[in-house]
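Residues pack. One example:


***
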Amino acid sequence: MIIGEVFFKHFYVWVAVVLLILCMEMKPGLGSLTTSRVGDDAKVRCIERERQALLEFKEGLIDDYGILSSWGSAEEKKDCCKWRGVRCSNSTGHVIMLNVHAKFYLQPLRGKISPSLLELHHLKHLDLSVNDFNGSRIPEFIGSFSRLKYLNLRETGFLGTIPNQFGNLSELRYLDLRFNGYLSAKSVEWVSHLSLLKYLDLSYVDLSEAIDWMEVTNKLPLLTELYLFDCELHSIIPPSLPLINSSASLAVVNLLGNHLTSSIYNWLFNFNTSLADVELPFNNLQGPIPDAFGNLNSLALLQLSFNQLEGGIPKSLGNLSSLRTLDLSHNNLTGQISEFAHMLSGGTEKSLEILDLGGNRLGGSLPDNISTFSSLRRLHLADNQLHGSLPGSLGQLGTLVSVDLSFNQITGLFPNLTAFSSLKELVLANNQLTGTLPRSIGQFSMLERLDVSSNFLEGPILPFPPNVTLLNLSRNKFSGSISFLCAAINEKVKFIMFSYNQLSGKLPDCWMHMKELVALDLANNNLSGKIPQSFGFLTKAKTLHLRNNNFIGELPSSLKNCRKLITLDVGENKLSGKIPTWIGTHLTSLIFLCLRLNKFHEHIPLNICHLNSIQILDLSQNNISGIIPQCFNNFAALVRRNKSIENFSFIYQVPDADNFDVVYLENALVLWKGQEFEYKNTLGLIGSIDISSNSLVGQIPEEISCLAKLVSLNLSKNSLTGHVIQKISELKMLESLDLSSNQLSGEIPASITHLNFLAVLNLSNNNLSGKIPSSTQLQSFDASAYAGNNELCGLPLPNTCPGDETTLDPSVTNRGKDNIIQGDEDGFINQEFYISMGLGFGVGFGGVVGTLLLQRSWEHILFKLLNSTNDWLYVTTAVNMARLRRWLQS
């Protein structure tokens, strides 16, 4: 009794003492906790079994960059709650977050995901993104993390089907599986069980068989953002699809790059009260743009580019007072640009910040009321049919950051744009602008990219904006010196393009101040003097064009420091000296090397064979002597071309807040099929060696037959002896072969008949003999291709070979040429004969005449037209694909 009274009397004291001890020794939680002491203070660490689970997870990974270096068993590393990427609950000590995503694409974790992670029963956040799990399948056990709210497995290299067990993640709010190129799902029914999901990104997952994707997304009442771009989706609307969607909160729909047709509108317009962002580019939308888009009252972004939309732009879009971005580029829209501007005057013009209508068929001139678009930051109307001069009101849009009006028919003087205080990008290329650049252009302190190429501008080049990084003035009539570069250019400049003008004088010697320069194009001017040694400071340069000027002297040895060069074109100058050996030892990234039409002499250095990436080598029209090196088979790109080198163009993305893209399209003049063509985006498909018009002697090395990717070979106008290489048939891609004006002897090898793509052949003016091998192709060439070989015979030459003469029966001869075959009395002339003859004639006619047609001069005109059209298509696509990649990565 006394004991009980004492107990109850001091009960609260005992409770306080116990609680105090517990607070001093450990934090409350489940499972055993390890502790450590620092002085007199006790510090809680993570739960031991969870720590062991994480260590086992680490053992299954290959950590090349020490990302998990803070994880370990050492005493100072025992607290897993302090490990990089691990977060524990403040109240329980359990691991609730595992975030080991790779910050850089070049520093991923590799390996496999250990099932030991199942010990993390309280995990709420799992991010393994941008790592490399080497084509393994997504572990099904991830579907067992019942408390998971956030799951990010983007760009992890997974393949196979998405586990249906993901449907068990009933607490999930965020799911990102994008950019796993080989993931697929025949059905997404499991998604319908994620009723709390707000963010869903299955981009790049193959959903071509998932016809239930619309029904499933309708069942997600809290879904706010939906990203399904490039999923092979088809807009199959099931009969059971309700008219009213339960996911009334859907604000962002990005279905870029699928096979959706205009029937998708029926599903889309059900979200008319919530949609703020609609992106449907690169689909199969056709017909007019529906007026119903004007009913999406919350719409801030509408992106319908790269479809087949037709007709005008609906007036209803003018009702969207919240619209910030309108991108209808690259469709077949028609109408007058002034009418469209009037349509948007109902309120949209006050909110619109980005307007892109490029790549359509809009006509007319920019209206004066363009200045009412007071919030406009980006105006892109390139590649339409706009004409007339630019209105003065355009200069009143002080908010503009980017203007692209290229590839139109805009005339008049260069506009006065003094009010463009915020302008960073101005592209007026390929128009009909005249006059001179205004002096005020140098005051544009924000301007970084100026492209006025392919106009009729003239006069001297004036000082330009101090922060410019791209300056393209090519294909105009600018004249005078470029000595101003030393004073005007800033150290951040990356692109200088002045080609096809009338510039003169010497090059300034101040290139050491342009160390960021990527491309320099001064071709086709009247520049003179020596190439300055300071070019050696252009260590980041990838392309250097000095063709068709009047430069003299030797190539400066300092150029060997420009190790990133992929293009070096100094053709058609007056350069002299030996071909430098350092080209082969230092400029090993070269893909295109042109020394054509200069005064280089002596032999071809053997070091040239170290150019493993070379695809176009032009040493023609010099004074080069000696033999052709036998090591040409070291040109690896021509032996077995690397698939990654398909063109020389590269995209430079300017790292600023506006994320503009600068597309530099490499170009080269190549002597091709007897004519000179300028190649751009197709340049990487040309494998060419031209050493013609020199003083080379000796035999053609058999090693040249190893260059299976060679498309054009020109060794003409030398003093080569010996035979045509016997293995010439191994040059399977060869389209043009010129060995004329040498001293080659012997017969034409029969294997030449296996060159199925051969379209141009010139073997004239040699000492070849014997019969021209018989093939439909070889006989289709003009006789001039074989002329000057006195001992050659056979078609198409007029002289027949011995033994080829045929003697006709006199009785047949007397009937006359038109009556050799008179009927069926000869027995073998029957119906089958006529059928066979007809088929043979058809095939022969198609083969011979078709080949002749494709080989004649009009082919060059057609080819040039197609090449130019292809270049334009490439630039347009490159710009938009760069934007696409940026969207995908953002």
Remarks:
- The two ends are 75 Å apart (CA to CA).
- Confidence is low (pLDDT under 50) at residues 1-42, 642-659, 807-872.
